[in-house]
Amino acid sequence: MLKRLFIRTLQTFFIILIVLILIIAGVTVWYFNRPLPATIENQQIFSGVTYSRIVDDSVPLIIHRIAIDLSNPDIRFFTTPADDIAGFDYAARTTSEFLEEFDLQVAINGDFFDPWHSYSPFDYYPHSGDGVNARGLTISEGIIAAEGYAPDASSTLYITADNQVSFTFPDARVGTAISGNVMVVENGVYAITERNAFLDNRHPRTAIALDETGETLFLFVVDGRQPNYSEGATMSEFAEIIINNGGYMALNLDGGGSTSLVRAGENGNPVLLNSAIHTRIPFRERPIANHFGIYVQQ
Known about the structure:
The protein has helices spanning about 1-30, 95-100, 195-200, 235-245, and strands at about 40-45, 50-55, 60-70, 75-80, 90, 105-110, 115, 115-120, 125, 130-135, 140, 145, 155-160, 165, 175-180, 180-185, 190, 205-210, 215-220, 250, 260-265, 270, 290-295. By secondary structure, it is α+β, with helices and mostly antiparallel strands. The model has no long low-confidence stretch (mean pLDDT about 95).
């Protein structure tokens, strides 16, 4: 009786082991051989908002661009408001959670933040709801949400109530502001002269940009850290992408595992447009401090 029980237990163990091996092998094959998506050119997803997906199979590299017509009266902008959480500016959210909570139509990840770590798919901070602080100035609906823990090392995009956008503080009242760590493009050229691993290695990237006329705002996202699918871009490559796709001034936002671009789908449910890569898992979004969003009156 005991011998039969032992044999059955051993058989069950080997069946479970084989199933796990097959699952791991299948996921590994998928991870390194994901099919590239189709190119999309200027698809209108909302009034005054178009989406493009650019696929460069030579790298490979997948680029996402949102173009927003600033003259469209149906559009207004929004950043994450401050949260009532002791000692911190924000309670962390994913970009999808941000879009859904505030009934937005489009959203991207925002500024760099602390505290943060990512040691494994299970050991990371923050989780949704954990306290975090933003690096630079953030203004939401005319109210300062965060002054930032490193404001002197930040650059900021300002938007007035009538959707005038600038990277210098305007004379009119500011309704929305979001910060990043550096201007990556200024006056149509790459604006960074230093060299380091953050700039020179390929990573997922996020930026917010303005065209030369000041009439179109762009959101740029590059997928990365996904072998044979999208390797990511160096900062100089990212600048070239922005310039070649209409950007004249561009602010670098948080990237890496924070990079995420979301739109509202049917019934307002969030739809992830890019392949986020939090903890090296494709399509997994990182909970982050703040975000930049677009309202489009339906």
